[in-house]
Amino acid sequence: MKSATILLAALVGYVQATTYAQFCDDHACTENCGISVSTDNPGCLNESGRNSIKFHDDNIQEVNLVFSPTPNCPCQTECINVVACGEGVCGGKVSCMDLAGHHPAESFRFVGGGSTSCSANNC
């Protein structure tokens, strides 16, 4: 019983930080922003023509963003470490990342935070 109580306390104490992102058409995260996606999901996002990413939620976290030059994330041309608050206002308020200056991409995916999570570019 004692070990079950300790396990339950450990599980209750664990909270996954979730940050959500929306890809937008303009460079200021205000025009035609898409649906919110969790940065915890490493799935491919076909977002051709997007110029900024709006990050939001109370649990702003560090994440890596992988750029692919064509749809369906077949390879990587760039991987950058993103600390969402570093691009805007922290504390649960919206932050915006302008994609100008990065490799042109038609698809993206988020991978775990930290510089060691980026693989070598392979396109």
From TrEMBL:
Q: Which region is the signal sequence? A: 1-17
Q: Which organism is it from?
A: Acrodontium crateriforme
Q: What is this protein called?
A: Uncharacterized protein
What keywords is this UniProt entry annotated with? Signal
